[in-house]
């Protein structure tokens, strides 16, 4: 299959990139700059795609940032939640209608190049809070995509039944360079190297550390702070 992957450069989407390629699919990657404060993920995405020889499109939609207020990812007045995710803190990271926007762009690209499907790395851990990762949303968008153009494009979510630990295990089996992926919502600057590093405190970093620990796989990520798990 010819697949368009919505690609953030994070652990989940990078593992999905490797997974799809290992299954013999041809993959092109689409990354979106929507004004997220953790734009380092886009640099990671570019580097990883270049290393793999994957076609990568980076679309600049920073103009949308004023329309996406209220999320810690796009609104600098909203602090990034630290510690274990709770329903309330996780909701603070939700970007309004983000996946609908990303999937619409991926669908347009897929239809224009006559690709077979678009994919994104929604997983089981996302379901409770992120509305645009729930199975009911995925099913509705899959149906909508069949009506959007004469060329029918499928929507696939191979990791929808997996949790973060299982994704780490799958990535390790595929040789994913985890150290080159980016998850952090609150990047910090290393005082010695002046390079950005994961904060280690935001919910997604805590979740990342826990997934490696539960998977029994060494975590190669550079953190400014290592959580007590």
Structure description:
The protein has helices at residues 11-22, 40-52, 87-91, 98-112, 135-147, 164-174, 203-215, and strands spanning 2-6, 26-33, 56-60, 117-119, 154-156, 188-189, 196-197. The chain has 229 residues and is of the alpha/beta class. The protein has one domain (2-177): Rossmann fold (3-Layer(aba) Sandwich). A five-stranded parallel β-sheet has the order 3-2-1-4-5, with helices on both faces. The protein has a two-stranded antiparallel ribbon with strand order 6-7. The protein is globular, with a radius of gyration of 17 Å. The N and C termini lie far apart (40 Å).
User: What Rg, in angstroms, do the CA atoms define?
Assistant: 17 Å
Total of helices: 7
Strand order of the largest sheet: 3-2-1-4-5
> What class would the helix/strand composition place it in?
alpha/beta
Q: Return the string of H and E elements.
A: EHEHEHHEHEHEEH
CATH third-tier fold name: Rossmann fold
Helix content: 25-40%
Integer tally of domains: 1
Task: Kindly provide the name of the CATH class.
Answer: Alpha Beta
Quote the average pLDDT. 88
Please report the total strand number as a whole number. Answer: 7
* Terminal-residue CA separation: 40 Å
What general form does the structure show? globular
| CATH architecture verdict | 3-Layer(aba) Sandwich
Largest sheet features: 5 strands, parallel
């Amino acid at each position: 299959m010819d697949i368009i992957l919505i690609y953030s450069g994070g652990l989940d989407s990078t593992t999905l990139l490797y997974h799809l390629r290992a299954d013999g699919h041809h993959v092109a990657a689409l990354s979106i700059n929507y004004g997220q404060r953790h734009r380092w993920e886009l640099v990671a995405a570019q580097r990883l795609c270049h290393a793999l020889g994957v076609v990568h499109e980076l679309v600049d939609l920073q103009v949308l940032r004023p329309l996406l207020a209220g999320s810690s990812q796009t609104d600098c007045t909203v602090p990034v939640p630290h510690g274990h995710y709770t329903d309330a803190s996780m909701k603070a990271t939700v970007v309004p209608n983000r996946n609908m926007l990303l999937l619409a762009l991926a669908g347009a690209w897929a239809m224009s190049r006559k690709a077979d499907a678009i994919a994104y790395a929604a997983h089981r851990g996302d379901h409770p809070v992120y509305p645009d990762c729930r199975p009911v949303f995925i099913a509705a968008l899959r149906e909508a995509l069949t009506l959007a153009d004469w060329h029918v494009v499928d929507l696939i979510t191979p990791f929808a039944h997996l949790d973060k630990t299982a994704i780490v295990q799958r990535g390790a089996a595929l040789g994913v360079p985890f150290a080159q992926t980016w998850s952090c919502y609150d990047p910090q600057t290393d005082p010695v190297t002046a390079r950005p590093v994961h904060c280690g405190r935001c919910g997604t970093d805590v979740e990342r550390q826990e997934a490696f620990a539960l998977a029994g796989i060494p975590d190669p990520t550079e953190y400014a702070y290592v959580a007590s798990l």
